[in-house]
Amino acid sequence: MLDQITSTIEARVAPLRKIFLKNSAYRHFEQVFTELLERRSSEIADGVTREARCVALIGGSGSGKTSAVRHLLAHHPRLVLGGPETERLDVVSLAVPTPATLKFVGQTTLSALGFPLRRERTAQTIWEMVKGHLQARRTLFLHYDEAQDLALHQSPRELKSVVNTLKSLLQHQAWPVGLILTGTPELKGIINHDVQLARRVFPIEFPRLNAALDSERVLSLLSHYAAASGLELRSDVIQRDLVARLIHAARREFGLLIEMTIATIEGTIRDRRTDVEIADFARMFRKRSGCIDGLNPFIADDFERIDVSRLLYGGEND
Ligand SMILES: Nc1ncnc2c1ncn2[C@@H]1O[C@H](COP(=O)(O)OP(=O)(O)OP(=O)(O)O)[C@@H](O)[C@H]1O
Ligand SMILES: [Mg+2]
After folding, report:
1. CA of 275 to the centre of ligand 1 (A)
2. Chain centroid to CA 126
3. Known InterPro entries for this protein (predicted)?
4. Where residue 139 sits, what CATH number does that domain have?
5. Does 63 score more than 70 pLDDT?
6. Distances 165 to 8, 127, 131, 170, 186 between C-alpha atoms, Å
7. What is the number of domains present in the chain?
8. Is residue 193 domain-shared with residue 227, that is, in the same domain?
9. Boundary of a domain, candidates 205, 231, 248
10. What integer best gives the mean pLDDT of the chain?
11. Sequence-distant (≥ 6) Cβ neighbours of residue 173 within 8 angstroms
């Protein structure tokens, strides 16, 4: 019985998780990526090799970087991403492993290209194999997610060797491969540290939400999700005050705000009500953070002073 209720709730929530909203950062990314793809495709058709370029998507945790790349790759009409009938793999996508040593990044990239990790080889041999396989599979772009981790637990020398190797992919004589790097703002430091890399990068920032500028957009987002789940928003929800609280609760990150909206709606559905109330937002936040009501931005008067990134927060000296 309980299983049945859970699966009914999941059946109503699952379609919400499938919605992808295109914001201006996504459209910008889509445009830059398409231009680079077209340029590279026409160079291949003309038998010309020019240096490839790098797109860097930078935004806070929960801004929506990983989702943006996944959506673009899954829906781009021109891309071939492997399959039973073709070796072609236009884009290879992977997360930077830690520690991001030259050898480990190379092994992980090789594995993403469909070849097992080879521990016995040197970093140089592994990267030669990576370059060979990129060409064999006609790969046009390599995507590294969590690219800020290139600098994690890393000596400056090791970081430099990884960055140089990534640059060498862009400049490869026979088969240049473009890069997509997604990461938190620390990625800017890594890119800016290397003038040659910085010169080849198209940076795209996922901006944080701003209660003064984005209220209308967030209100229509809430209506969109409520309508998609067959619920109504109570009149006290459709207010700038609630929107400002939600933006604050979501650390001003677009993706996190959507995640919280879906979790709130799930609570309403679980309660078998048809109207989303402010109390549903408060409950969602309490469940996620474990905080007392005085530190819940949907309850406290002076919500802007609350540090929403702290879990199980009970007060000043916590
Ligand atoms: N454009 C979007 N439309 C709908 N949902 C989105 C969108 N972007 C992000 N989300 C949702 O927001 C949440 C966070 O997104 P995502 O994991 O892509 O963020 P991120 O920037 O990669 O964060 P992190 O740096 O922590 O990896 C996910 O639950 C995702 O489904
Ligand atoms: Mg991510």
Report:
1. 26
2. 28
3. P-loop_NTPase, TniB
4. 3.40.50.300
5. yes
6. 50, 8, 10, 9, 20
7. 2
8. no
9. 205
10. 93
11. 49
Angle ∠(167,142,136) on CA atoms, nearest 5: 100
How far apart CA 136 and CA 113 sit, in angstroms, is 10
* Residue at token pair 């790098």: 54
Which positions ≥6 away from 161 have C-beta within 8 Å?
Answer: 102, 123
pLDDT at residue 81, rounded to an integer: 87
Domain end among 183, 205, 227: 205
Mutate to test the pocket of ligand 1, among 16, 57, 67 (most ligand atoms within 8 A of CB): 67
Of the listed ligands, the closest to the CA of 225 is 1
Whole-number Å distance, alpha carbon 68 to ligand 2 midpoint, is 9
pLDDT tens-digit map of 306-317 = 999 877 666 665
Question: Is 19 close to ligand 1, i.e. is its CB under 6 Å away?
Answer: yes
**In-domain check, residue 107:** yes
Tell me the residue type at 108. Answer: T
**Range 200-229 average pLDDT:** 97
- Asked whether the predicted pLDDT for residue 2 surpasses 70, the reply is no
Give CA angle at 88 (87, 92), nearest 5°. 110
Confidence of residue 162 (pLDDT cuts 50, 70, 90): very high
Which residue, by CA, sits nearest to atom 8 of ligand 1?
A: 64
Tokens of 193: 């540290």
Query: Minimum-distance ligand to the CA of 17?
Result: 1
